[in-house]
Design brief:
The complex is a heterodimer of chains A (about 250) and B (about 300). Chain A has about 250 residues and is an alpha/beta fold. In chain A, about 35% of the residues lie in helices and about 20% in strands. In chain A, strands 2-3-4-6-5 form a five-stranded mixed beta barrel. Chain B contains 16 helices and no strands. Chain A: This is Membrane protein.
């Protein structure tokens, strides 16, 4: 790989990361807190690519066959001897995959396919603070599900809560409101599932191919259903009001 | 050739996007792009730090900072891992730069293994993820440090220098400092980044293909559970800052099995193996990675059994 190709790969990758982080696209993959680091890393990549072009122009053009001399003596000895024939710089072509993935394909946030294959991910907190003020009170799905399962709904009482998530079909014909939580990147995403009871509006059943987001208001319901993936309990919410909403920019619950 | 490739990809954008819209493929793509997006800042900063070490820090600095005796240098370097609050992607190029700067390899490897596991960010996130189990933080830090030191000493005792095949830096000789810095960053990003792609793609395949319901079956036998979670940590390649939250949610497994998950993951996983093979040499990675895995699982099992 000659120096120009190296520079182009660096510029593409830097550009792709920069575009993803100045728009909301990066929120489909990582936590909001990473934005500053992403922008700084993208700038460093762009500068590295620019430096390579600039050095190339100053020192004259590289060999035309794409194997300039600095490659050969850089890696020649390693490749001769262990004979497995991977030319180390060649592996750099693979960096086109994430660059083009970000620029052209821009895959969406994880949805019902991933959520259906992973068990609901609750961990018992050490204590339950009283619910914040508000009627209905807006809380996260993890907060609701932990209070419902580990506190048997005591700290929920008969308060009306408002949850936001996407709807998907669940076990035993249930309708499940789901939100993925992410601690670092989408590779560690786990779903939090809440079964919806009460009067559901028609058409809320959930299309497994396209997530529809809903804002539901409801009260604690003592029933539970087992998640078939990991045998954990999924709590119910007795829905009193549900309305379809647009997909939020930050789809993962923080 | 690059230009032609790009034109083809842009022209075929529609069909490519359609082909990738099958749910499994789309999930793979999202997980792959996410691992890369998460890793790129740490990779780039790690590479910049190793370029600074290579270009601006004189070799004599490390000779003075570390104890003369290699056996003592190992634990000191391991404990020094506390100060690099990066994820494991940064530690591989930095370890390579340290060895090139004359640090004894055993000490550099102790640093490589310890720094992603025992830095403050990781320990705090472990405490947050296990609120009812404060011993998990201590167990993780102690076990990781023990494994890192044992591996460092093991290398001092049995390791052979010719297993290491690091790309030589002769192209940097004779360059002024700043051109050398940029050339080093460029070379390492392309090199380590390419291998990171291999590891991330493989980890994403596993995340999509292996059904999580298998885990349920494996959690009942205590020994199988430890091995299963260690293997899961190896293939999932989750960042060390996030793995505690995943471990906390694996409630059907014993605390010892989850400790093994937390100790193995930051030390050796698919993406680290790919990067070690690229930066430190394949002969090195093929020996060092399995040894690290066995050592991490064994020490975790012992520590876990003693504590819980």
């Amino acid at each position: 790989m000659n120096r120009q190709a190296q520079a182009v790969i660096l510029l593409l990758l830097g550009g792709a990361v920069l575009r993803a982080s100045v728009t909301d696209q990066y929120l489909n993959y990582v936590k909001p807190g990473l934005r500053g680091f992403l922008i700084a890393a993208a700038v460093l990549l762009l500068l590295t690519g620019a430096a390579a072009l600039w050095q190339g122009m100053r020192t004259g053009s590289p060999a035309p066959d794409g194997h300039d001399h600095d490659h050969d003596h850089e890696h020649g000895h390693a490749d001769d001897e262990d004979g497995h024939g991977h030319h180390s710089p060649r592996v750099a072509w693979l960096l086109l995959l994430p660059a083009l993935g970000l620029l052209l394909v821009a895959p969406p946030a994880l949805g019902s396919y991933a959520a259906g294959r992973t068990g609901t991910a609750l961990t018992a907190p050490s204590d339950f603070a009283p619910l914040p003020a508000g009627d209905p009170v807006r809380i996260g799905l993890l907060d609701y599900a932990s209070r419902a399962i580990f506190d048997q709904g005591r700290s929920l009482g008969d308060r009306r809560v408002q949850l936001t998530g996407f709807v998907m079909p669940g076990p035993d014909g249930t309708t499940i409101l789901t939100r993925m939580i992410v601690s670092c990147c989408a590779a560690d995403a786990r779903p939090i599932k809440v079964a919806l009871g009460g009067d559901l509006p028609p058409g809320i059943a959930g299309d497994p191919n396209e997530e529809q987001w809903f804002e539901v208001v409801g009260v604690y319901d003592a029933r539970t259903v087992k998640d078939p993936v990991n045998a954990e309990s999924i709590p119910y919410l007795r829905v009193v009001e549900a309305k379809a909403v647009a997909t939020p920019a930050e789809q993962y619950e923080s | 050739m690059l230009a032609a490739l790009l034109v083809v990809v842009v022209l075929l954008r529609g069909p490519i996007t359609r082909a990738l819209s099958a749910p499994a493929l789309q999930t793979w793509m999202t997980v792959f792009v996410s691992i890369m997006t998460q890793a790129i800042p740490f990779l780039v900063f790690g590479v910049a730090l190793s370029a600074i070490i290579a270009v601006f820090v004189p070799a004599s600095f490390f000779a003075r900072a570390l104890p003369k005796h290699p056996a003592l240098a190992v634990p000191v370097a391991g404990a020094a891992g506390v100060v690099l609050p990066g994820c494991e992607c940064a530690s591989v190029p930095v370890a390579g730069a340290l060895i090139r700067r004359g640090v004894v390899p055993g000490a550099a490897f102790a640093f490589l293994l310890a720094s992603p596991a025992i830095n403050p960010i990781v320990l705090v996130s472990t405490a947050v993820a296990f609120p009812g189990e404060p011993k998990m933080v201590v167990a993780r830090a102690v076990t990781s440090l023990i494994v890192a030191c044992l591996m460092g000493w093991l290398w001092q005792a049995f390791g052979k220098g010719d297993w290491l095949r690091m790309p030589s830096r002769s192209h940097l000789d004779g360059l002024a400092k700043w051109p050398a810095f940029w050339a080093s960053v460029r070379h390492d990003v392309l090199h380590a980044g390419g291998f990171l792609v291999v590891g991330a793609a493989a980890a994403a395949v596993v995340a999509v293909v292996v059904p999580k319901s298998w885990l349920q079956l494996l959690s009942t036998n205590p020994v199988v559970a430890i091995l299963a979670l260690s293997l899961l940590a190896f293939i999932l390649s989750i960042c060390s800052e996030a793995d505690a939250f995943v471990a906390a949610s694996l409630t059907q497994f014993s605390l010892t099995a989850r400790l093994a998950f937390l100790v193995v993951g930051p030390m050796i996983d698919l993406k680290l193996f790919a990067m070690q093979a690229g930066i430190l040499g394949r002969g090195f990675a093929l020996r060092f990675a399995p040894a690290t895995f066995v050592m991490a699982v064994t020490v975790s099992a012992i520590v876990g059994t003693v504590i819980w």
